[in-house]
User: Fold this.
Amino acid sequence: MNERRPFIAAYILASRPLGVLYVGMTSNLYERIRQHREDRVEGFAQRYGCKTFVWYETHGFVTEAIRCEKALKRWKRTWKLGLVEKTNPEWQDLYPSLFGLAPDPRVKPEDDGEGEGLDLFLKRLDGA
Assistant:
């Protein structure tokens, strides 16, 4: 697990689909999500059972991730639900896909690089 290069991200955990949401940020997404899943992070997420990793956005700098986290925390709940629904409508746990153990549910089949999807992708790259 340590062979993966850590990356900076803002993220959302949920207790269940449409359940309690937790917004956070980290400089090592792999480790932080693992800590949440193992109940090693005390506080809100642990108290309300937020272990399902449903959304994240990577950032180049910690300051950017902090800015994103603070903005998300000011958002209305319905906006946060909409953000998750937009990229992960089935509220699947992204943890396995983060480690390459499962396909990323946020990637649409036409964008997965297989079959006709690859042809469509290449056409878009060529501007055709």
In short: The mean pLDDT is 86.
